[in-house]
């Protein structure tokens, strides 16, 4: 499931509320499960983006509804996801090194290549999900 989500993110051309909702549902990440600083800033994101985070979706688990965070369009939301899934991991993000360089990110001691994406937020989400998936697979 996570590998399919990573593949979709790698193909994304930019921020996507549909992908935000898929991330939210796949990982069961509601605002109640995020770090306090992310939860506390959700109203600020709503005001800043004027409705961009007002999309409400069914999470498919127990019939709960919540607003999904803009993981693919916000470094803050992507960072909150990284903190939630990999709380002690170091995060590195880069973009605009050259006109041809894609945004990239690395989370933790991931030995693979840096994750790249259409936006820095997408690159960070891909790196986070890749590292998280590797950790989960190593647990058996």
What is the topological layout?
Elements lengths: L1 H10 L5 H11 L8 H14 L6 E3 L6 E3 L7 H11 L5 E4 L9 E4 L7 E2 L3 H20 L1
Antiparallel strand pairs: 1-2, 3-4, 4-5
Helix pairs in contact: 1-2, 1-5, 4-5
Write up what this structure looks like:
The protein has about 140 residues and is mainly α. Helices cover about 45% and strands about 10% of the residues. The protein is built from five helices and five strands; from the N terminus they run H-H-H-E-E-H-E-E-E-H. The protein has helices at about 1-10, 15-25, 35-50, 75-85, 120-140; strands spanning about 55-60, 65, 90-95, 105, 115. A three-stranded antiparallel sheet has the order 3-4-5, with helices on one face. A two-stranded antiparallel sheet has the order 1-2. Strand 1 (about 55-60) and strand 2 form a beta hairpin. Helix 1 packs antiparallel against helix 2, helix 1 (about 1-10) packs antiparallel against helix 5 (about 120-140) and helix 4 packs parallel to helix 5 (about 120-140). It is globular, with a radius of gyration of 14 Å. The chain starts with a helix and ends with a helix. Mean pLDDT is about 75; it is low at about 50-65.
